[in-house]
UniProtKB/TrEMBL annotation:
Lineage: Bacteria, Bacillati, Actinomycetota, Actinomycetes, Kitasatosporales
Cited Gene3D superfamilies: Metal-dependent hydrolases (3.20.20.140), Urease, subunit C, domain 1 (2.30.40.10)
PANTHER family in alphabetical order: BLL3847 PROTEIN (PTHR32027:SF9), CYTOSINE DEAMINASE (PTHR32027)
Domain of life of the native organism: Bacteria
Species whose genome carries this gene: Streptomyces halstedii
Region Disordered, residue ranges: 89-126
Protein name according to UniProt: Hydrolase
Gene Ontology MF term list: hydrolase activity, acting on carbon-nitrogen (but not peptide) bonds, in cyclic amidines
InterPro entries attached to this UniProt entry: Metal-dep_hydrolase_composite, Metallo-hydrolase_Enzymes
């Protein structure tokens, strides 16, 4: 599904196919590891650190905001991914003179209550 990104797949399972966020994440994490014959990951002393750190206040937020992440494999950071987003103020003009359209939260993510991707300003607006 998607571009081979398990978190993107989980987001699509939740946003487009009606799974709740926990079931979607389980499908791409523990269930996928079990299908590949990999051991269960545990966060405890003596276990190798296998972690994925993403932004988000809760699981739906983490799936929605997973474009920035840090991957830890066997206790070492093996990947960092980030994204830069640029926003124009309302009423700004796009190159060529056209008006910039407001990116509203009326898409699928907004309907499902998933957070919009991007950073918010001091008042919570994008």
């Amino acid at each position: 599904v998607g571009r081979g990104d398990p978190l993107e797949a989980a987001y699509l399972l939740a946003a487009q196919h009606g799974l709740d966020a926990a079931a979607a994440y389980e499908a791409v994490s523990a269930t996928a590891r079990a299908a590949m014959g990999l051991p269960e990951v545990r966060v405890e002393a003596g276990s190798p650190a296998e972690l994925l750190a993403v932004r988000g206040d809760d699981l739906p937020g983490a799936l929605s905001l997973a474009y920035s992440r840090i991957v830890v494999h066997r206790g070492r950071v093996v990947a960092r991914t980030g994204a830069v987003r640029e926003y124009r103020a309302h009423g700004d003009r796009a190159p060529g003179g056209g008006a910039v359209r407001d990116a509203s939260a009326r898409g699928t993510a907004g309907v499902l209550g998933l957070p919009r991707q991007g950073r918010t300003g001091p008042g919570g607006e994008l």
